[in-house]
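Q: Protein A?
A:
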Amino acid sequence: MAKKSSKQLDVVNIGLFGHVDSGKTTITEAITGMWTDVHSEEMKRGITIRLGYAETTVYKCPKCREPNCYSTSKKCPTCFGDTIPQRILSFVDAPGHNALMATVLSGASLIDGAILVISANEECPQPQTVEHLTALDIVGIKNIVIAQNKIDMVTEEQALENYNQIKEFTKGTVAENAPIVPISAVQRVNIDALLMAIEKYIPTPERDLKSDPKMYIARSFDVNKPGTSLDKLVGGVIGGSLVKGKIKVGDKIEIRPGVKMKDKYRSLFTEVTTIHRFGEKLNEVGPGGLIALGTKLDPYLTKSDFLAGNIVGYPDKLPPVHNRLVLDVKLLEKVVGEKESHEVSPISSNEVLMLTSGVERTVGLVTSARGNEVEINLKAPICADVGEKVVLFRQISGRWRLIGYGLIK
């Protein structure tokens, strides 16, 4: 059988979720060899603040038994024979810090499945673990694998007790039947078993290749080095995930809501000059994986994630831009993310809420609240279709807490 090139392999986007000290970034490194905390502030604080990305190819040895047959190497670590590439895993390492929940939801909008990381040396669940699992439920992520990390730091009895806590915690949730894989990311123990679980429980979804393209921008960059001469400057780069359709080099694209000019947001129009995915330069790309599009935009507009939260597509083919929303709201019974349980009170007029839609987040003032119907004036607009889900946060004790979601009417 002829082996597939990486351009032909399926690509699946996987998010890593869990408490801040659960070891998500270490797991990403153990699987891909890449450390996703690449920004200076993240390195100082030891947490993932922005969405971190890493990719790798899963290989399977035709000779070895499961789970030893799974690896990320062209040569089998067990028998040293040739392996067969299966597909590409594209990881989104979402923040675990409780003040960064909106960024977690941004990551959830990009993913096809999730690894929920729970530490074996801590009581389960931690507040942020509850919040992350609730978020996965709200955004509809059902394909989940649970990584019981740090088993090297506990006894067998403690690991079993923690396992039972995980089973009790996930009972009745979207992760109730998710496999629980005991691992040590630091010691690289059972990473093959984790890869096997990903392959079996997080399938590659059917991709819509025929619709007009729609891409979420999660990052944007100016890749020019200081002092670059004018004749060698290149346009701004936008990074994120294509959720439907295809984009080709040379395509004319629109970016919505765009940038604020004289108190009004205006779309940006440009051309795709380059496409990169998984370290390869492509002429065309479809959904799956994290991609970077080179453009003819002024690089000033793309530096420091300035365009993060926008949506890309063909001109005049994107969802409408909303400065005001009418939502059909569904609130949680309890506030999640805190050790003490508090009931979620109804939304009231003149209340300020934070909202996330896709990879965009904004704040808004509630102008009317009548039962389940809430009207909100937005500080910054969002680009979304009627019926799309908007996740709602309320400021409680100085932090934004997840309280529910609303459907755009």
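Q: Protein B?
A:
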Amino acid sequence: MACRNVVGFGSSAGDGGPCGSRAPSRDVASAGRLLERLRAAALEAVAPTRCAGCERPGELICADCLHALALIDPRRSCLGCGAPFGDLVCTECASGLAGGGDESDAAPPRPFAFERCLATATFEEPLPRIVRAYKDAGERRLAPLFAEMLADTVEHAERVAPARYGGLASAADVLVFVPATAAAYRRRGFDHMEAIARPLADMAGLELADALAKRGRTDQRLLGRAGRQAGARGSFDVVRSVRGLRVVLVDDVMTTGSTLDAAARSLLHAGAARVDALVLARVWG
């Protein structure tokens, strides 16, 4: 299940190691794996796995839906906002200042506090259905798949467009996720971005920093551009030290950029050396 000729999007994330200094005995570990397989088999019998994009049985994201994703070419995208066609002039950036130029050009002026933005795909079907299945329908098994998509996106961008996206993850110190509001956490029962960021940090070889706390109760999806921008201002507290660190800030969907901008400003105000943004989907057009 590969969407680019690099790391496949559909393989499972690896299991984490034990939290303590003593590993469980082989028998206990084997019994735990057996119980997990039995639970999974029972759940599959009751509620068979279906594609989150088209409901085809068998896989969480089928090959057809993966191939249908509108992937963004990092050689042509806007460095400032992640839009798919901003390498010369980006019409999506509110200030009209972002744009990458060709790879020999100097970095353009930035419309946001983060240095660069990299997005996996534009937010068009089947991706919106897949994201809704994760966030609103509670299909948590999608988290490691989203993490792999993001890890693949970074690896691909650093390889094919090193003058534009080089070092975005490979030269970073920590990965920070945009957290859910308390209201969203209570509604969903989990922080959707933390669940993605944890396996992503392992894949990218970065420390995960749970550094941001989000104020407010409003669902940003219900707001227009002006409402998003007003609601995002001053909406984040930095709750652990990021002083001197190069940060990759990750979120699922970027619409106006106001949430990521507010989060990046808070991190920079707290002493972060730089912030780059990484998102799964870019609303565009």
